[in-house]
# Entry
Amino acid sequence: MRTHVKFFLLFMMVLSFFALPAVSFAGEHSSSEAKIARALEAAPSAITDNATIIDTDGTVLRKGTNGWTCLPASSAGSHPMCNDEVWMSAMQAIGSKADFKTDKVGISYMLAGDDNVNNADPYDTHPDPGEVWVQEGPHLMIIVPDVGALKGLTDDPESGGPYVMWKDTPYAHIMVPVGPRGK
# Structure
């Protein structure tokens, strides 16, 4: 029972950062089944088949068994994501603006793409001249235990391959595009 309480508290902290939108899932999108279907778009079935699915308000829509957590929406938009335990911890740290360190690699899937995001600042919500913003298409996000290992990897999302997002923050991670970019 303590694990469920800890998980719920962790998730509620994650929600506080992402302010997981009052996304209006109108009509068919308001059903639990539609939200689960949307969350399942974030990752391959080998991940999603046994993942826990959590709604944007924190409600567990489906209990899983494989340690992955999928959401029907990620940030202030409507793009689903599936996170391993490390990424869920990173989201908690981002949400509380806390330092983040891990001793394991963390993986997050966003195979339905993402919203327009500042590549340098996880808290920026408005594009200003000179900033680099990217609306990535299908991608993976990888957090590594030693951010020094990211040295030499570009932070330019226009480089045509993997790049570092949020480079000079404790939340630096590798973005791995696997499909065309969002419009």
Q: What stands out?
A: The chain has four helices and ten strands. The chain has one domain: 1-183. The radius of gyration is 16 Å.
